[in-house]
């Protein structure tokens, strides 16, 4: 038997391609002109639509299979120039199913066997692998989407918590968000020092000022007072219009004496700050300025969540709260009144003047009240002092006088920034 006849035996192609029938490989053999000479059984079973493809130009076979023109050009170029081709992904629709193959082809040269001088190639079915890859990618994308959703929800919750924090005193906010799931803040009976303040003749002020100016005045006042209250360790219960309710001793307490001293420190600092800001408020249309009355009491109160399932309010209830409101109403403008219980706790550190003895409604005994002066020493007064200066165009408010040089340096930096912006504005206008 001649060698070439041996190579032409029906089973030779399968043998020459390493028994590709057992692999999921469709094999073909073409001559140098890329005309198909033989294919294996897998090729015919994979691509029955091609029929008899003997002596057919192989790029035409690829075209019939639906291979994109760019990949066909790549095949021809690489076979011609490099002698081998590997196209990892060839998408071919067989029936209604899209399958994915790798196309591997290479030139063969063997001078002893002229029949092998040509192109030997194969399609490796990678559909199952490809499907697994797509499933993994889909799962990964789903996880990424879930992560993005979780991150977005987290951002929304953080934004909500930030907004919510503005409506709660920091101590109460921290207390609520540190609770374990399913737990709620229990009611408690505590000895608290309660502070109540109100602006004198605020109703007349609200009737005469424009809404925008009124908002500026009230917001600036409440912001300043809230800052001092928090700085002194007070828990801001609520703002009732222009009125402020603050208490000391919950959620944390430094002892009833220290709580009372902190409350008085806060009240004195508030009155000082109100005095400093009079010029600013007059510029806003408050011709007579703002004058504030304050009342302070000490006694046992019930503190906790009160309200309904729809809305809760963390607040204090009890006679000391009512008494503080009444003392505030009785105080002189820019004055501070305290009850006898508070006086007994602070009289060694604070100068107080006895005022009237009153019998509030609902009380079984008279209450001696006192006017508050100044601290006798600085042991319980915050050493930080606010320095305020208002010019014709600029107002300066330095919080910490102990670092005045740093404050001046900061002002110089601001000056340079404004000068740079001014220069850019001039250039733009030109």
Plain-language structure description:
The longest helix has 39 residues, at 127-165. Helix content is 43%, strand content 27%. Helix 9 (211-231) packs antiparallel against helix 10. The protein has helices at residues 3-7, 12-16, 41-46, 58-64, 69-81, 127-165, 170-177, 202-208, 211-231, 256-276, 278-283, 319-330, 340-346, 404-429; strands at 25-30, 36-39, 84-94, 97-108, 118-125, 188-199, 235-240, 243-248, 292-307, 312-317, 336-339, 350-358, 367-375, 387-390, 395-398. It has three domains: 3-125, PAS domain (Beta-Lactamase, 2-Layer Sandwich), CATH 3.30.450; 186-386, Nucleotide cyclase, GGDEF domain (Alpha-Beta Plaits), CATH 3.30.70.1230; 400-430. The chain is of the alpha+beta class and 430 residues long.
Gross geometry: elongated
Strand count, sense and barrel status of the largest sheet are: 8 strands, mixed
Taken together, the total number of domains comes to: 3
Number of strands: 15
Average pLDDT over all residues: 81
The structural class is: alpha+beta
Percent of sequence in beta strands: 25-35%
Question: Could you give the distance between the termini?
Answer: 99 Å
Counted by DSSP, the helix tally is 14
Query: What is the CATH fold-level name of the largest domain?
Result: Alpha-Beta Plaits
């Amino acid at each position: 038997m001649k060698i070439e006849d041996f190579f032409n035996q029906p089973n030779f192609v399968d043998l020459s391609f390493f028994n590709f029938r057992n692999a999921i490989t469709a094999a073909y053999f073409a001559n140098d002109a890329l005309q198909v000479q033989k294919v294996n059984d897998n090729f015919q079973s994979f691509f029955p639509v091609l029929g008899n493809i003997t002596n057919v130009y192989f790029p035409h076979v690829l075209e019939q299979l639906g291979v994109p023109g760019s990949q066909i050009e790549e095949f021809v170029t690489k076979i011609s120039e490099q002698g081998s081709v590997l196209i990892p992904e060839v998408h071919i629709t067989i029936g209604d199913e899209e399958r994915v193959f790798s196309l591997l082809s290479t030139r063969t040269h063997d001078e002893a066997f002229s029949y092998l001088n040509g192109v030997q190639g194969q399609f490796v079915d990678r559909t199952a692998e490809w499907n697994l890859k797509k499933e993994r990618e889909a799962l990964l994308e789903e996880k990424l989407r879930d992560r993005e959703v979780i991150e977005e929800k987290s951002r929304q919750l953080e934004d909500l918590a930030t907004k919510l924090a503005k409506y709660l005193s920091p101590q109460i906010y921290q207390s609520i968000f540190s609770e374990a799931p399913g737990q709620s803040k229990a009611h408690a009976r505590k000895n608290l020092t309660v502070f109540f303040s109100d602006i004198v003749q605020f109703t007349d002020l609200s009737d005469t000022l424009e809404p925008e100016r009124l908002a500026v005045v009230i917001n600036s006042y409440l912001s300043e007072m809230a800052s001092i209250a928090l700085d002194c360790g007070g828990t801001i219960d609520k703002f009732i219009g222009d009125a402020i309710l603050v208490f000391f001793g919950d959620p944390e307490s430094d002892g009833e004496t220290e709580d009372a001293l902190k409350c008085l420190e806060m009240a004195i600092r508030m009155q000082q700050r109100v005095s400093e800001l009079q010029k600013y408020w007059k510029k806003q249309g408050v011709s007579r300025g703002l004058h504030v009355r304050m009342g302070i009491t000490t006694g046992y109160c019930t503190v906790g969540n009160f309200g309904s399932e729809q809305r809760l309010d963390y607040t204090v209830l009890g006679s000391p709260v009512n008494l503080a409101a009444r003392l505030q109403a009785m105080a002189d403008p820019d004055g501070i009144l305290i009850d006898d219980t508070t006086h007994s706790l602070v009289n060694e550190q604070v100068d107080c003047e006895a005022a009237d003895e009153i019998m509030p409604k609902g009380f079984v005994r008279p209450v001696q009240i006192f006017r508050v002066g100044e601290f006798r020493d600085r042991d319980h007064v915050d050493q930080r002092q606010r320095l305020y200066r208002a010019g014709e165009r600029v107002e300066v408010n330095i919080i910490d006088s102990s670092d005045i040089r740093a404050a001046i340096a900061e002002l110089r930096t601001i000056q340079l920034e404004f000068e740079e912006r001014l220069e850019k504005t001039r250039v733009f206008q030109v």
